Amino acid sequence: MSSNYRNFRTSVPWLILFLEAVFIVLFYFLFSEDGASRSSISYPAFKDVNHMVIFGFGFFLTFLKRYGFSSTGFNLLIIVLGVQCSALIEGLLVFLPPRENEDPLKRITKAAVSMTAVVISTGAVLGKTNPVQLILMTVVEIIVFDMSRWINKTFLQIPDNINMMHVHLFGAYFGLAVSSRFSEPSPRTEKNASTPKSDLFSMLGTLFLWVFWPSFNSVQAVNDKSKAIYNTYFALAASAVTAFMLSVLTTKDGKFRMTHIHSGVLAGGVTVGYAAHSIEYPWIAMILGLLASVVAVLGSYCLQRCLNPALKIHDTSGIHFTFGLPGVLGAVAHVVLLVIKNWTNLPRLGYLVMVHVGAFCLTISVALLIGFITGLILNLKPFKTVPVSKYFEDQFYWEVSF
């Protein structure tokens, strides 16, 4: 291998050891006095979110034919490191106004939900980053995302259950900004393609995500958990039906395409997340699910052929049309529903629109800016261990037998 690329064995173990030592010390000072307390979040709800993040996204990203070990293994690595980091950031933010002591189960649940942003971002650079780069990206992104949520909550008074749903927007646009700093794979390479077996494993992850998404959207709800679950399920159902319909209509041979199913069936859950707890009638959630699937399936066609080549962005997993565009649709839909609901109270209406649009714009702006800077840092010589010719290869990191 060229001397321009370092052996990751000399850096990955020591970086992990250093971070874990720092986490243990900080946990000692911040959480040593935590006692047993009644939690506002049930253990089954936390378990659903944990399954979704680890199993769901772990298998969702296994569509590359030579990158299955890395997709699932690195996903677990960054999650267990990122959850610890996020819990510490939440603990440190307790010392800033407004002060809010949270029970341990709620703290770890919020950390797991926050890690969704990092996992989504990983999809944009899947196969092109080494473990050192992924770990550094995880630490930077989770710190910035938690700080972004704190700003939205403190200065814009955005409730936690809505604030946390920015996770899709932040993850998608942070990942795209990072990906813009990485070299595109050669058009002649076939390593970034899928096989029927890898697509099947990826579909398994999609099914995990689909099943547990109602828990994800309702875990932060205070009084309307059942309504959030109800609306999320019907939005997911409508988006799944629409994805199958559009897949047949948009392919040349009139057959289902797995890429459309992967993205379209989840889009409804992303879009309805902002307003799932407040939508009064299920038909509204179903319309949002239908529109989300249309945006995801048609967006995949337009972005891959028009926007991404123009911006020189290689989005490995298609996170822009799976999470980014449906997230934008959900944020806009939430503002529209607020306008309809508060139409008779014009002074309050103007304030609500201003703060929610502000939070939405702030989230995307911070994600793009910090993501771009992070991408530049990750491409510095000390962090590069993979040449472009070794993209999408498990053999560079794992013992693989054929």
TrEMBL record:
<feature type="transmembrane region" description="Helical">
    <location>
        <begin position="228"/>
        <end position="249"/>
    </location>
</feature>
<feature type="transmembrane region" description="Helical">
    <location>
        <begin position="323"/>
        <end position="343"/>
    </location>
</feature>
<dbReference type="Pfam" id="PF00909">
    <property type="entry name" value="Ammonium_transp"/>
</dbReference>
<dbReference type="InterPro" id="IPR002229">
    <property type="entry name" value="RhesusRHD"/>
</dbReference>
<feature type="transmembrane region" description="Helical">
    <location>
        <begin position="200"/>
        <end position="216"/>
    </location>
</feature>
<feature type="transmembrane region" description="Helical">
    <location>
        <begin position="283"/>
        <end position="303"/>
    </location>
</feature>
<dbReference type="GO" id="GO:0097272">
    <property type="term" value="P:ammonium homeostasis"/>
</dbReference>
<dbReference type="InterPro" id="IPR029020">
    <property type="entry name" value="Ammonium/urea_transptr"/>
</dbReference>
<protein>
    <submittedName>
        <fullName>RHL protein</fullName>
    </submittedName>
</protein>
<keyword id="KW-0472">Membrane</keyword>
<feature type="transmembrane region" description="Helical">
    <location>
        <begin position="76"/>
        <end position="96"/>
    </location>
</feature>
<dbReference type="GO" id="GO:0005886">
    <property type="term" value="C:plasma membrane"/>
</dbReference>
<dbReference type="InterPro" id="IPR024041">
    <property type="entry name" value="NH4_transpt_AmtB-like_dom"/>
</dbReference>
<comment type="similarity">
    <text>Belongs to the ammonium transporter (TC 2.A.49) family. Rh subfamily.</text>
</comment>
<keyword id="KW-0812">Transmembrane</keyword>
<feature type="transmembrane region" description="Helical">
    <location>
        <begin position="12"/>
        <end position="31"/>
    </location>
</feature>
<feature type="transmembrane region" description="Helical">
    <location>
        <begin position="349"/>
        <end position="380"/>
    </location>
</feature>
<feature type="domain" description="Ammonium transporter AmtB-like">
    <location>
        <begin position="14"/>
        <end position="381"/>
    </location>
</feature>
<keyword id="KW-1133">Transmembrane helix</keyword>
<dbReference type="GO" id="GO:0008519">
    <property type="term" value="F:ammonium channel activity"/>
</dbReference>
<feature type="transmembrane region" description="Helical">
    <location>
        <begin position="51"/>
        <end position="69"/>
    </location>
</feature>
